[in-house]
Each structure stands twice: as structure tokens, then as C-alpha cells.
Specification:
single chain; about 240 residues; alpha+beta; four-stranded antiparallel β-sheet; elongated
Length: about 240
Amino acid sequence: MRTAGHGPPAFSAAEDDPGPAAPARSRRGSRGCDRSAPAGRPTVVRSDPAASPGVQAADERGATAVEFALLLPVLLLMMFGILEYGLYLFTASALQDALSQAARFGITGRTVAGLDREAAIRAVFERQITGVLDPREVTFESLVYPDFDSIGRPEPFEDRDGNGVRDPGEPFDDVNGNGRWDADMGSPGAGGPDSVVLYRARYRWRPLTPVFRGLFPSGGLELTATIAVRNEPFPGERG
């Protein structure tokens, strides 16, 4: 700023004094923005979306759903397998129990009005399985033998050629009296006092689920229950 007089030019204090130095700024603010960027163009620091808690929770839920979908068929197969096996055991037990009840009635020699002994014994058996098994699906039989050792054995025959098989024309002992040789010497009936009787029942068990039913060529499994008893001295024949 010039004055009216002569001499060197004078300057004002405001123009000559630069003033106190401004404090140096940090290159990065507390919020993660880069302070070194040009003015007017703020730099935004991007974060990984996968690192957020919400995304991680969604990923965990998705993985759990996939694992459950893979394990569900196996769990269902195991559950139905246990169910089918339980039904199989229950059916086999019911069949054996009904046969035992019929045999207990048969050894006493008792009868029912209007029925012979064999029919009465079968009636006891069918009464025990009613509501559990279909009597029409059950095969019931009783065979009489000379003793317990003869159960299931063939009628004796003379093996002339020594091949261990009865050939036509070879003589045999007709134990059951039916006029022919049998591979099982038991004769149908309920027997008399002190007779040995074999009771046998067969039932075709079928699984409930088609998956397990397909495991058996015939669609099921044949259950067989047997019990051998000796008849008591019948009423009126004691002492």
C-alpha cells in the first residue's frame, strides 16, 4: 500500500504476516474415509457383504435345509423299517399264542356242542386270532404221530438198492394208514388219549409299505408256528 510521501513502499501487517501454521490433518479420518483424496470426491471404503451377520445367518439356514433334505429319506426309511419289523414280530407272536391256546384245548379231549374235536380246536384257534389276523389267510393243521421222535420223519421203507431214497415198488410201513408212502408219517387229526399231536399254522405276512413289500418276491413272508403236545387221558378214562 503506497503512501503519499517518498521512500520504499510499505506493506500492511495482514499481508506480511502469514499467521499461525494450520495443524496437519490426518490422511484417514476416524470413519474410514481417505483424506488424501481430492476435494469434492470422497472415497467410500466398501465392506464384504458376506461378512454381515444377516447374510451369515441366511447361509447357515440354507445349509441346514439342504442337510435335512438329504437325511429325510434315510430317516423315513429307518422309521418305517422299525415299524414293519415291530408288526412282523407282533404277528408272529399272535400266531404262536393262538396256536398254543388251541393245543391246550386239544390235549384235554373236550368238545363243543355241535362240533367234532378237530373243528372245536380250530374254532379256539380262530377265536384267538380274530381282530388280529384274517382267518381266511391262515392254514391250520394237526398231525398225529406215534411218538415225539417220529415228528416230521418219513414212513419206514426197505431200501433195496441202498440209494437212500424210496423207489417205486419198495415195501414200506404204512404208519398213517392212507395206503401210500408219505415223506411225513403224521396222520391228520386231533389224536386220542396219550397221542402225540403236532399243531401247525401258516400265515402270509405282508408289509404295509410298498417299499418293503417290494423286497419280497411274493410280496410278503410266510410265518410258521408249530407246537407238539401229548394228549392227556380224556375225561371218563381216568382211573
